[in-house]
Specification:
CATH superfamily of the largest domain: F0F1 ATP synthase delta/epsilon subunit, N-terminal
Radius of gyration: 16 Å
Number of helices: 2
Structural class: alpha+beta
Order of helices and strands: EEEEEEEHH
Number of domains: 2
Number of strands: 7
CATH class of the largest domain: Mainly Beta
Largest sheet: 5 strands, mixed, barrel
Length: 137
């Protein structure tokens, strides 16, 4: 049996995950990547998405991340995320409300400033991902 790898997911506010994993998959800026024990070291930016890992017992776990960075080492993956939530901590009602607010801002003809539209698109993407993960639980 292959060795496990330590996964740490932290935000500026708290440690979200500190666990041993069989495999870690994450949304890199250039596409999803996977890390097993003994992986070649690398660092990458993350995009909005889900970290999927298989814990020591073989159970699949999911963590929402809203950007950040990941460092993979042969025995550890460290994720420094802007924000992160374990799947079971996601509030579907709050995510749905955020999605509706973002959709409303995008549909508003008066909100022509590109910066506002970019922020609304990012908020919509975060809300949709949270809702997808909440549906898995």
């Amino acid at each position: 049996m292959a060795e496990n790898i330590r996964l740490e997911v932290v935000t500026p506010e708290k440690e979200v995950v500190n666990a041993m994993a069989q495999i870690v998959m994450a949304p890199g800026s250039l596409g999803e990547f996977g890390v097993l024990s003994g992986h070649t070291p690398f660092m990458t930016a993350l995009k909005i998405g889900a970290i999927h890992y298989r814990d020591e017992s073989g159970k699949d776990q999911y963590v929402f991340v809203s950007g950040g960075f990941a460092e993979a080492l042969p025995d550890k993956v460290t994720v420094l995320a802007e924000s992160a939530e374990r799947m079971e901590d996601i509030d579907p009602k709050r995510a749905k409300e955020a999605m509706e607010r973002a959709e409303k801002r995008l549909a508003d003809e008066r909100a022509k400033e590109e910066i506002d539209r970019a922020r609304a698109r990012a908020a919509l993407e975060r809300a949709v991902m949270r809702l997808k993960l909440a549906a898995l639980s």
